[in-house]
Amino acid sequence: MIRGAFINTEPAVCSIFESGKMVFDCLKQSNFYNLDYITLEQIDIEHLKVNRTFRLKQGRENTEASPPKPYDFWVLNYHPSTMAPFLPQELLPHLEGPKFAIVLEVEPDNPIKFVPAERFDSCIVLDPTAMPTAKVTPFPRPLRGVPRKGRLHNRDIPVIGSFGMGTPGKGFEHVVEAVNREFERAVLRINVPWATHVDSIMFNVHRMEYSEYIENLCRKIAKPGIEIEFTRDFLEEEELVDWCADNDLNFFFYTRRQSGLSATTDQCVISGQPLLVSSNDTFRHIHPYIAPYPKTSLRDAMRTTSDAVRRLQNDWSGVTFHDTFIDMLMANGIIVGERGDTAVRAARHSPATVVLAIAGADGQDAPIADPISYVQRVVAALGRTGEYKPVIMRYRDADDFQRGVFWLRPSAIVLCGTVEDPGLLPALEQAGQVLYHLPLTPGQPLLAQGLQAPGLQQKVQRIERAPVIPYYTALPPLPPGPMRVCVFGARTQNNSFELIVSKIQRDKPGALVLVARLPSENEEDDRLFATKLEAMQPQLRLTPELQVVVVDMPRDAFGVIHTVGTYDLLLFANDRTHSAELLDYCDLALSTERAVVFTRLAPFPEIRNGTFLEDAPVEALARKGMSAQTALYNIHSEGRLYSEFDRLQRANAAPPPADQLQSGWLPSASVVEARSFPRPSGLLEEEESAWLAKGNRLDILQAPGLSWARKHAAAYVTPQQQFLVAAVECVCNWSPSSRIVTFGDEARGAMLVLRKLGYSLEAADERMIPAGSADCVFGSCALSGIADARDFLARVVALLKPGGSGVFTFFQRETYADDEQENPDFPTTDPSELLALLGSLGVTPVGPVRWRSQRPLLEPRPFSAPQLAGLVFRKHGAAAP
After folding, report:
1. How far apart are CA 54 and CA 51, in angstroms?
2. 793 pLDDT exceeds 70?
3. Are 183 and 189 in contact (CB under 8 A)?
4. Which residue, 154, 212, 218, is CA-closest to 180?
5. What is the dihedral of CA 452, 454, 456, 458, to 10 degrees?
6. pLDDT given for residue 510 in this prediction
7. Does the CA dihedral 13-14-15-16 come out positive or negative?
8. What is the pLDDT of residues 709-732, one digit of tens each?
9. Could you tell me the strand order of the sheet in which 412-416 lies?
10. Cα-Cα end-to-end distance for the chain
11. Does a cis peptide bond (omega within 30 degrees of 0) precede residue 294?
């Protein structure tokens, strides 16, 4: 029997270590192998470094961990924080044999971002929503123990539970606020155990033990009738399952933004009790089973989620996990046998609903990828659960816009800001999608001044600009020294900065008042504020300890959150000349751990349920912390926006035509910025396919392990090859499991790129491919005239299954072409002949076919290459997958 070694991190009160133990417990009992369990501190790292051989430290040897022969494979819980610093990746080759990394920190759009994947044969990605590739094997959550049926407690007063380590972003305060909204009486149990790696760091965030801060916060928020039972017990796994089983509902409202999936739901699933989570993408493995809060209310979750929990128990069982592991070992040649169909497949919504958010070529000043951009915050909120796939597009003109809409097939289009291009109006009026208008500034109109489109304005539904508080994780500590109050929007002449300072002088005369200077403010604003401060000198001399300092606000979201997170109190006043910018900064401030308050002297019409400066002493407001804004957060959370948009979309959206391509190709919870997309038919231009490079889909060709010859061959991936990659991925629904058959040169860029992306390509000339079995067939080389096209297309159509798609390129014969001037090295094809050939073979081009001809050259250059064109077609039959 083969032998394997399982290396876990050092024992600790830590979810990383516990996750490793859970994986081992799912794998240790097997008829295919023996698996030894080793923790990091047992390994003689110095011996491994010097002698390049594995052994345990003296006194650690035993018969199980010191086998008489080398291990046949290795499984490492290779976490970037708790293993990689102590077992550097440079030492991994000294562990002879196939190696597999357990991946816990999983980015939604790049599951192996934090693992040196090139050092491992494959990665055990504990995310069932991950897309399988050559390096990624998606696994279910490693549930161990016997799943329970769950029980109905029939209590008059419901008991709701939530637990987790004491780190920012766990949202316990929002759990309390949500319970406040739905119940007059309830018991809320919160357990925050002591943690090895985080407690000392968290102390500095609020100058106290973090669990103590959370308890005080929750008790402040709970209304009369809501009883808080707060504990700090570290519970063994069976005890934790018992704890979850005693609750009528287990509820988690994470607001963090960091890699990885939440492990807290594992024990809840085993308990069998009803479960509810927020829309945060740390719960993306739960969302396909249970719609998040507030789309699902707490009361509804108690009644309706038990069946979903039972499905989770089945899909994530220890048997399923073990079978997926065996399947991976077989795929890597460690176990010989027939591969089964037990491997976990991507748990995604099918089909995904694409939402296209469009902005003009200029867009907003802020980079769209940064959540300081309002557009980015909106589309990120819509994409968290994976049900909607948002794409941001900056278009140049109406033709650019139409190409993007054709290629993506969105079900809804969100018009961001004001439409200023009159050429875009006919395309929008004829669009079959649901149209929404999202103002970027309060009161912004749909159409620029002078544009008239009554039919469009009746068709478009307006989504009023409201705050969207992003999911984010902020850890900045409070520095020593006087209380720091940061004031936003009070630098104008009419915002009563004098009265704000007077209030602070009365309540906290030794405070430091930091006046935020926004990026959009200019020298004239500085001059006017300096004049105001000069006039306030008699008032300021009354409290000489109080200081007023102007601070420049960063232009990026991380910089803003880290900066304002070091202040005790954040105060916002509405400066109408900068309302949109102030609202953006307010949204970011509300994602921090600090109290955010407003002033009644200059209110924001878009913000209700806030806390006001005039209603309490300054120091009391600062002590409120996040309790000052939990009601506001619930109203303007990402989950609330997603829920409202989903309600609108379900009420408005019609089912897509049966012959449309399904567009579920975007990674879960990702947002893609795209200016334009490759044409599905017509002439190819370099700029039209440059979008591929934006997603680093071509950079992978420079990855380690690629031979020099292949790197050299792929040094420039032509627009032709980029078109092939984009078309093949789209018609295959971006699924590496599709069967793809190829014709042409193996060294061409399209084949290299697709293989590096995890696709398995089968060469038509090297093996017998059964007729009617391929999802997609493409040729990497341009067709050489109509005779070559007849032979190629006949073979392609025979290989395709009904509903399958073919992709090819060819040199276009222009209408003015002269046979005597044609370059024999580039045989051309008449597009009309080609379309007739496709029709005779029973296949249909995808999308409108539009050929553009250049003007005839009076003196054609000899031997110049003709225009290159491309086509995508579909074989008649069942709809494409």
Report:
1. 8
2. yes
3. no
4. 218
5. 150
6. 94
7. negative
8. 343 334 345 777 878 888 888 888
9. 461-462, 434-438, 412-416, 353-359, 388-394, 672-674
10. 41
11. yes
* Spatial distance between the Cα atoms of 577 and 629, rounded to a whole number of angstroms: 25
Closest among 198, 179, 177, 195 to 187, alpha carbons compared? 179
Nearest to 783 by CA among 833, 737, 738: 833
Integer-rounded Cα Rg, in Å, for the chain is 30
Run of H or E residues at 136: strand 136-138
Residue type, 121: D
pLDDT in tens, 741-776: 999 877 777 888 888 777 889 988 766 788 899 999
pTM above 0.85, yes or no: no
Within 8 A by CB and 6+ apart from 499, the residues are 601
705 vs 685: CA distance, rounded Å: 31
Q: Which residues pair with 358 in a beta bridge?
A: 393, 415
Q: 69 vs 5, 41, 96, 335, CA distance in Å?
A: 12, 22, 11, 17
Query: What backbone phi and psi angles, to 5 degrees, belong to 563?
Result: -70, -55
Dihedral pair phi/psi, residue 271, rounded to 5°: -65, -25
Q: Alpha carbon of 386 to those of 331, 376, 439, 735: distances in Å?
A: 29, 16, 24, 15
Nearest CA to 414 out of 352, 353, 356 is that of 356
- At a CB cut-off of 8 Å and minimum separation 6, what does 478 contact? 204, 205, 206, 207, 566, 568
Pairing of strands 461-462, 484-488: unpaired
Give the SS3 label for residue 669.
coil
pLDDT tier for residue 691 given thresholds of 50, 70 and 90: very low
Burial of 68 (0-12, 13-18, 19+ CB in 10 A): exposed
Residue 62, CB-side half-sphere exposure with 13 Å CA sphere: 8
Q: Is the distance from CB of 166 to CB of 199 less than 8 angstroms? A: yes
Contact between residue 769 and residue 837 where contact means Cβ atoms under 8 Å apart: no
Instruction: Of 549, 537, 481, give the one whose Cα is nearest residue 513.
Output: 549
